Structures are given as C-alpha cells and as structure tokens.
Amino acid sequence: MKLAAFCLVLLIGWTVRTALAAEPASAAASVPAASKPAHISLVTIAVAPGGETKIPATQPSLADKPEVLFMGPMNPNFELYDLVYSYLVESGVYMQLEDDDRLPEELPWDLSQYKVIVADAHAPFMSAATAKEHLQKFVDRGGMVITIKQPEKVNWDTNDPELYEVYDAVLGRGVRLQHPAFLKRNAARPDRQVILASTAKQMAVPGSISWYLIGNDVAYMHFEGLLKTAALYNRPEIRQFVLDLLQEIDTKHQGHAAVFGPHLVKQFKALGCESYYERVLASVDANTVQRLRDRVKQTQERGGSFSCERMEGFGYSCTLANLANHPELYDPAVEMIKLGHGVLFDEKTKLWAHGGATGQERTPPWSRGQGWALIGLIEALENLPKDHPGYPIIVKYLEETAEGLAQAQDATGLWHCVVDDPDTRLEASGTAMILRAYCHAWRAGVCQMPQVKEMLTKAWYGLKAHSVGGRTFSFLWGFSATHDKSAYGKKPSSGTVYLTPLAGPEYVMTFGPLVP
After folding, report:
1. Contact in structure between 131 and 147 (CB atoms under 8 Å)
2. Contacts (Cβ under 8 Å, ≥6 apart) of 258
3. Angle in degrees, 0-180, between the axes of helices 450-465 and 180-187, rounded to the nearest 10
4. Tens of pLDDT along 112-165?
5. Could you give the maximum distance between any two Cα atoms of the chain, in Å?
6. Is 350 within 8 Å of 408 (Cβ atoms)?
7. Which CATH number fits domain 283-511: 1.50.10.10, 1.10.10.60, 3.40.50.620, 3.90.79.10?
8. Contact 271, 242 (CB under 8 A)
C-alpha cells in the first residue's frame, strides 16, 4: 500500500486511525508480502500539512546520520512494535541505536537529523507537555511522528492489507533501504561481540531451549557453532550449555536415536554422551546398506523426486559409513548424490532447485536450499576416502555451485530468498549455511579460489550488518518446495539468534576475524 492510500489521515498534529506497522510492500524494497495480523492496533501518524515532505533547514545532509529515531517500547514483549522494528532493520533502514544496540529511551532535544520518529503510544514522554511541543515542532518542520498502541494479541496467520501502512509511511519520507552507513555501523563491531551476543540470547531464551528438544536436525546443526564458539573464545559455560541440552535430549529420546545429522554425531563421545553415540552408530547395519542400494536401483529405473533437504541426508550416510565402519555405504550414497544433482542442479545458473523430480519442472532455487545441498556435499567430502571415485565429483559440484552463488550474491553480502531473483527479499539463514559449508571446504583443501574467499568475506560482513542486539534479521521460516515463487517471500520472522554462532566461528577459524 502506498502512502497515498491513507493520505486522508495525514493531518497536522496527532491524527489517530486504525492501522498496523509492518514490512516492505514493494519490489523496490526487495521484500515481498508477509503474513499479517488480523487484530489492528491504533497508530498515530503526524506529518506536515498536506503530507508534504519539507526538509528542515537545520537537517544535516550527511549520509552517515541515522534517519529514524525508533524509541524503546515500554513493554519488551510488545510483539507488534518489535515486528515494525524488525522489518526496518531487515531492510537496512538507518535508525538511532545505543552503542550496545539498545533502542534509545530518552527523546533527544536536537531532532534535526531525523526524518521519522516511531514511539510506543504509552511511553511516559508522550504525555509530557514539553515533549508534545517538541514533537509538534518536529512535525511542523516536515518530520513524521508515528506512535503505535499495543493490541491485545497479534494473529500472524491472517493477511491484512494494512500491514504495510507504517512501513510505506516511513519510506514516503525518503528513508533509504539498505543504507550503507547503517550496514557499515553494524558490521564494524568486533566479530567476538556479535557472536557472543547471539549466543547469550540462545542461552537465556526458554523458547530456544525447547526448540532444541524437539528432535530436529535443523536445531542440532547449531550445536556445532556453539561448541566452536566456546572453544574459540574460551567460554566453558557455553560448552556446558550444549552438554546439558544433549543430556536432556538423551533422556527424552531414551532407547532410540533422535534425528541427529552429521553435525554432532562424531562429537557425542567427546562430550560424554557415549550411549547416544553408540546408539546412532548401531542404527547402521547391512539392511541400511541394502535399502539405499535398492533406492538407487529404483531411482535409476523409474526416476525419483529430490529436495535439497534430502541431499543433506546422503552426506549423513557418508558420515555414518565412516564412523560406523561401513564403507559399502559410500557407493550408494554417492550415487544418490549424483542422481539428485541431475534432477536439482541447473547447469545454466549453477544453482540448486529447492525440489524437483525426474522429467519435471524444477522449483525455484531457495537460499536455504543451497545450504542444505551444500551441507550434504561437505559431509560427503569430509568422510569419503580421497581415493574414492566420488571424491572429485563432489569437489566439482562444490566448485560449480560456488560459481553460481558468487554471480548471484547481493551487494550487501547476503543472498536473496530466491537466489537468482533480486526482487525477492534478502535471506540470512541460507547465507549462514552457505558460508559454513565453504569454510569447511576451504579447510578441507578444496575450493580455495580467491573469488570464494571474497564471497565468504562478503557473506560474513552481510550477516554482521544485519545482526543487531543478538538477532540476525531477514530470516524466512522453512516450508516444503513449491513452484509458487511468491511463497518464498512469506513467513518472515523478527530475527533469529542462531545464525552468527553458526557461521561466525567458521569464518574466524578459516580466515581470522573480519574485525578483531
């Protein structure tokens, strides 16, 4: 929705209307539509007469000044307010932040540098006469003040066309997206600070702990990053946090192995979880090998369907072949990787479709899908004997994918949600997984080309640039492969705490810190 759609509410002073703050709505913002709440909050939008943008004579024109003053909310659990903040950070809107990334809580006297002020409607200063007068002068000079009132609850599953109203109002004041100075400000922080801030949030938020307990490989992949963070920065309490969670998981799944991928299996013994380690390895036997051989034969004869997530599983098979001493598992695992590559890999773009089947049209190349496919390739590479005939094939696949990814990488360092479509939103989780995979490859002695190092440096810069307050923004929740490209722009989140510990230690271990 464009600013003109609600021009009737753009009045002098405080004008109250029903609306909701939200995420970018236009292709220019490179962020498509999102899931939207049904419960509407009260938003106050105050602007100069007629909705005209009048730049105050005292307002600096320097590009390195914050453009938005986003005040801290009264209630830290104000979901809607946090969502507005998240979308602005995701799009690189330059806002005022304290040195420790906290939102400012006091209204400064000099407002000349700002174009927009966003505040909690119930903040104490909003009822103070001096503050009202101060804000009114800001509005009279051409600034915009937006206040948001907390709704009783937010329904994230219902699409609401008014979701974009505040975002469009902010952009209507000439606020830039992906502001270089804002990204530079965030990326300039020491790597250690960014990684540990995210780790601290993981250890403090109960929801993150319950997520680990569900028995899901996506969750367990992050343990590796936490353990490397603990070792890199000598933080034994982080290692203990992982150990405690593993023990909880072991208790919950007693008697059978959870869906652990290759990311932690080989570390169980070192962490004291020997019983779990033995149970995982015991799951591999002659029947496992025969089932995979039968699957290869069936796929060769009748064709088959593949997804990037399933490609990761074939790499896991190579890990188990190595650790459980079942070398006969290597051949069928590599053959399935080759068959999956034939179905999913686009030789023209050198990218992996999210899903596909023999003889059918591929789905779009999802950013996190690239990550899953690469993780499978890396696990195969790290566990295959170097003299195995599949080893150079895996190296070739990694090199080809690196070429496609380097061509599609956004200037910010992130990749777009649909990798080869710059009109889709940026997506940080795929970026983190891609960075992790190629750091592993580099340390394994492959893909050590200058363009790969440049690509990974840009990726880590982009992840840091989109990380604020321990969260990394521009993150899309997972879903099944689909031909509907628009689906890959939906289901946004308000940031995630898992990505900088997943990717950051990998970069630092491989190349040294980007910022010491």
Report:
1. no
2. 215, 220, 249, 252
3. 100
4. 999 999 999 999 888 899 998 999 999 998 899 998 888 766 655 543 444 567
5. 79
6. no
7. 1.50.10.10
8. yes
